UniProtKB/TrEMBL annotation:
Protein name: Vacuolar protein sorting 55 superfamily protein
Annotated source species: Patellaria atrata CBS 101060
Any single GO CC term annotated in Swiss-Prot or TrEMBL for this entry: Vps55/Vps68 complex
Keyword RNA-binding belongs to the record: no
Pfam annotation, one family: Vps55
Length: 127
């Protein structure tokens, strides 16, 4: 069971991630890296929606489920886009390289916090 210390630690890491992304925008007066926050906040949603929409049969164990695979694909696509977008902006000269590094690190911290939160506070299903 996750307790109060886990919530405090996850919120601290999430605050550091947001701080890095905001500083990557504010220090160099380029606000395009804020798009990383949107991609990392939206990234877990396809996985969550598709796992709820999947047909879970208690009696048959299905090895492949297209809906769940599609949700995982879209989540992976959004995570990769959150990393690739600042790299693309830095390559095109729209943002500086330090802003890119801070944005990628902050985005990865945000997404890792979201994943850790879902892992620690996942409800176990009993039949």
């Amino acid at each position: 069971m996750a307790g109060l210390k886990t919530i405090i630690a996850l919120s601290f890491v999430l605050a550091i991630g947001f701080l890095l992304v905001i500083l990557s925008c504010a220090l160099w007066h380029q606000y395009l890296p804020l798009l990383v926050v949107a991609t990392y906040v939206v990234a877990p949603l396809p996985n969550w929606v598709c796992s709820r929409a999947a047909n879970n049969d208690d009696f048959m164990e299905s090895s492949s489920n297209g809906v769940v695979d599609f949700g995982r694909f879209m989540t992976g696509f959004l995570v990769v886009m959150g990393i690739a977008l600042p790299v693309l902006f830095a390559h095109c000269g729209l943002i500086t390289a330090p802003a890119m590094v801070m944005s990628v690190l902050g985005g990865l911290l945000i997404y890792a916090t979201i994943i850790s939160f879902t892992m620690f506070f996942q409800e176990e299903q009993d039949f």
